[in-house]
Amino acid sequence: MRKKIVAGNWKMNKTLQEGVALATELKSMLSSKPNCEVIIGTPFIHLATVAELVKGSVIKVAAENCADKESGAFTGEVSAAMVKSTGADYCILGHSERRAYYHEDYAILKEKVLLALRNGLKPIFCIGELKEEREAGKQNEVVKAQLEGSVFNLSAEEFSNIVLAYEPVWAIGTGLTATSDQAEEIHAYIRSLIAAKYGKQVAEDATILYGGSCNDKNAKELFSKPDVDGGLIGGASLVAEKFKAIIDAF
Ligand code: PGA
Questions:
Q1: How remote is the CA of residue 163 from the centroid of ligand 1, in Å?
Q2: For site-directed labelling of 240, which of 40, 122, 141, 249 has its Cα 20 to 30 A away?
């Protein structure tokens, strides 16, 4: 069964106290069950506290990254096992900001995905093209290479524990959103790649989120498309009412 998901990505925002306040507010707003799964992606330092706070509610917690090494002398890194031990269920991986600013390439992301899965975390794996790549009509080629480079090595069973997020880089934090037709076109293409690799059923069951300036105004239109199964929300996930309105789009 394909899951509908609205996931927040707080990025490097909110002190621990501010994050706890936001999660508390959201939890009280979501006392009746929404029509989708709700995930909040928080910085590492918030994870344990927020996971405890939302326990028993509809909200699940995601890390925004994990290390590409199992354990040991890697000062400042946080392993997938550590993330799992906080009570988090998901881990955002391959976000374009990590690819661009921290030089995370296909091989590094492949390791991170494997370690996340091996430690019982579900990766939310982000893919998407740059503005120049879209202008050159290369978006399909780019997302295909990103999938082949980091996740198409997985078995069908492993792959079914992954959530994909298509996030055109030109739409992230810019206020420019892909139109719902642009999103649908590439989501359908991504699903066809999954079908070619893993078969029709795995593709049918795969959750593919849209991310990039998705907000309370455009979510309903985007989510109305058959291959758009929810959103990965940056800016608008930092304000409880806005995030709740996106969840209510389902
Ligand atoms: P945005 O970010 O909603 O602020 O554009 C989305 C993301 O980077 O996941």
A1: 16
A2: 122
Query: 39 CB less than 6 Å from ligand 1?
Result: no
Among residues 150, 125, 40, the alpha carbon closest in space to that of 86 is found at: 40
> Is 167 annotated as catalytic?
yes
Give residue 228's domain range: 5-26+34-247
Strands 90-93 and 59-63: parallel
Nearest atom in ligand 1 to 173's CA: 5
State the total domains in the chain: 1
Q: Domain containing 191 — which CATH number?
A: 3.20.20.70
What is the token pair recorded at 68? Answer: 């590409």
Q: Write the pLDDT tens digit of every residue in 140-184.
A: 999 999 999 999 999 999 999 999 999 999 999 888 889 999 999
**For 10-121, where are the E strands, in sequence order?**
37-42, 59-63, 90-93
User: Is 95 in the active site?
Assistant: yes
Catalytic entry in 95, 104, 129, 133: 95
